[in-house]
Specification:
Elements lengths: L2 E8 L2 E9 L2 E6 L4 E7 L4 E5 L5 H13 L10 E3 L1
Parallel strand pairs: 5-6
Antiparallel strand pairs: 1-2, 2-3, 3-4, 4-5
């Protein structure tokens, strides 16, 4: 299953959120179509950043997507890995 959940803007950049499965998402930077990381929304928000990408950025993108309703949150929690 692949579905584009929408775009989010963080720190002056726009990112595309792609749903890969239940609670599993990939994040791509629109400027160069580069994958910046992945995150899961259950049981906690758990992020994995691509090499050279700050995990806190991927976490901020995930939280922003949640706040503006692009994704749903299965449970509360926030953890970076």
């Amino acid at each position: 299953m692949t579905a584009i959940k929408g775009m989010v803007q963080v720190a002056g950049q726009t990112y595309r959120i792609v749903k890969r499965g239940p609670g599993e998402y990939e994040v791509f930077r629109i400027l160069d179509d580069a994958r910046v990381g992945t995150f899961e929304s259950h049981p906690h928000i758990n992020v994995t950043a691509e090499e050279g990408v700050d995990p806190d950025l991927v976490k901020l993108i995930a939280v922003t997507a949640l706040k503006i309703g692009k994704i749903t949150w299965a449970r509360r929690g926030l953890r970076a890995s």
